Amino acid sequence: MSHEILIVDDEADIRFQIAGILEDEGFTTRDAASGEAALEAVAARLPSLVILDVWLAGSAYDGLQLLELLKRDHPALQVVMISGHGAIDMAVNATKKGAYGFIAKPFKTEVLLHTIERALQDVKLKRENEALKAITGGAESDLVGTSAAALEIRRTVEKVAGTDSRVLITGPSGAGKSSIARALHGKSHRAKGPFVVMNCSALDVRTVEATLFGMEPSGDRPRMTGVLEQAHMGTLLLDEVSEIPLDVQGRLVRVLQNQRFQRVGGGAWVDVNVRVLTSTSRDLTTLIEKGMFREDLFYRLNVVPLAAPALRDRREDIPDLAAQIMQRSAHAKGRTARTLAPDAQSALQTHDWPGNIWELANVVERLLLLIGGPDQPVRADAVAKAIGGESTDVLRWERAQEVMNMPLRDARESFEKEYLLFHLTRFGGNISRTAEFVEMDRAALHRKLKGLGLQNINKAAR
After folding, report:
1. Does the pTM of the predicted model rise above 0.70?
2. pLDDT tens per residue across span 203-224
3. In the chain, what are the domains?
4. E strands along 84-146, which residues?
């Protein structure tokens, strides 16, 4: 579905010109010649974005007054201001009142389109972040659980949060690295300050420097504030820091050392007080060897290393994580949370989770939508459907027919081997947890595993 943009300008030819440009790019448009007409248009249907002229002849409201009304009633609505009387003071005033950007007439097509694309992307990211936080619970949810990995993460967060030490968070995509960073910020003395995230992998290499350091105004382009400046007195997370270009890495080294920088195109120094956290799903030492990442930057960032484990390496935590995500997802969608039956928990624990916690959140949300009555517990067959498995029962034993044709002694041994492997996998290779569940003495379980040829427990379970 294309985005719909409302164009508010008292000059019909300007409205026609902007509409033509946007429609050529696949947008749909509506227009209004006055503040009153604009309010009626927004009330009829909320647009994706508003392009608003500062001066509206013959209108009860000028553009800045209309901007205040729109942001009061629709805080998330992005508004781009335009004016034939471009001035820094006017641009600053508009952004203070909530405008996303300011473009002076006559504008260049590429400037208009670039500003609109950035504004719409900003809305998209904010909505995605809010949705993910609503489902997963934000900063703390990924830290629940009783596994050794979860306990170690919580211990490190408690120990390091109160300092200004830089933390390099490593781990696969979806393992909760940004949530760990949020927890570090939330427990720090900077908690009341901003928490700013720069997703380095989502940016064009040509815009990384401007996004990081900001850009001085030039012609009809206003000053752009970089994330370092936005995060002043707070925390900046450089997500997927490995994607920062080498030349920008050199500038970042100097910023970390001096806490000052110059905006792109400027000569004045900007002093900031920022704690920088970083995350990556790549091996930075390998990138250093290949000349793709600066060694001096690595040592400045890796003051405290913290590893976010893959979900398959903390299977014990999956029932707690799933239950918490279920509660939060149900609350966010106005539904009743479902309980997870023991076979459903087992099914979740034995899946490999290549998408980690975000995949688990997606599966739980599907379960919430798939199950019928609110009193029905989630069963293993529903888990299989939500994950996308071909079988309707992920716990079905595929060797059943083969075993039925064995002598009893061989069949019993085969079943015991499969049964114990299943629960070892479920509990992440934890012998104590497995022994407790299958109701065997720990030493007896060790002997049984040895007798079945399963001495290499961790390898077998994983």
Report:
1. no
2. 777 788 889 998 888 776 677 8
3. 4-128 (3.40.50.2300), 139-309 (3.40.50.300), 312-387 (1.10.8.60), 400-461 (1.10.10.60)
4. 101-104
